[in-house]
Amino acid sequence: MRSHTGVLLGRLMLNIMRSPDTIITVAVTPVMMLLLFVYVFGGAINSGTEPYVNYLLPGILLITVASGVAYTSLRLYNDVKSGLLSRFMTMPIKRSSVLWAHVLTSLVSNALTIAVVILVAVLMGFRSEAGLLDVLAAAGILGLFTLALTWLSVIPGLKASSMEGATAYSYPLIFLPFISSAFVPTETMPKFIRIFAENQPVTAIVNTLRALLNEGSAGGDIWTALAWCLCIMVVAYYIAGKEFKRKLG
């Protein structure tokens, strides 16, 4: 399985390297948000931290991932639509290798995009005093979040009947950080919105990343963040697996 997955991963990564505009396109929206919120709205937002880019970056990274996984749906949809997926199934390869190749491609491509966004944030004044273990923990949370959303993206990639349908699911994921602690503290929100914001997955994950990168300690939020990521990933993996088997008959 490992060798089959590696070959299929190489195929997908080669396509991305031949068309790097995918990574650039995914990076453009979060970079523009960074510029807009830091330089236009940042002066009017009291986040309690200086500079504001330090407060903002974790939420922007989640938006980056939510934008990036939409391409996983698109690539998988294209493989299904073109008949390539069916052709792979006639070859002596492990069936799950096909899906895992798409998932690992998402991890690699999103990591590259996140690196671009972080580089821009550093140029804008982002600084972190986090130690190596804190940085690794933050990277682990981001990786787990990427895996969770990627398995979620596999479902529309297999089920969609159009290109638009394959990527439309990502819009709510991109919008969700706006109703969280990603841009402003939840204490500033009206009560009924604050209740939702404080109990949805993005807030726990954003708070964890922010604490790890800025304070070096995530406290209890890290367990909530891990629970959300694992729960989403397990449920999405199960549904994606069932849909994959149904698709192959």
UniProtKB/TrEMBL annotation:
Family named by the database record: Belongs to the ABC-2 integral membrane protein family.
Principal place of residence: membrane
UniProt keyword annotation of Nucleus present: no
Record-given protein name: Transport permease protein
Keyword Transmembrane part of the UniProt annotation: yes
Subcellular location: Cell membrane; Membrane
Source taxon at top rank: Bacteria
GO molecular function, one term: ABC-type transporter activity
Keyword terms: Cell membrane, Membrane, Transmembrane, Transmembrane helix, Transport
Segments passing through the bilayer: 21-41, 53-77, 98-123, 135-154, 166-184, 222-240
Protein's organism: Metabacillus indicus
Coiled coil stretches, renumbered: none
Pfam families named in the record: ABC2_membrane
Membrane topology: Multi-pass membrane protein
GO CC list: ATP-binding cassette (ABC) transporter complex
Sequence ranges assigned to domain ABC transmembrane type-2 in this UniProt record: 21-247
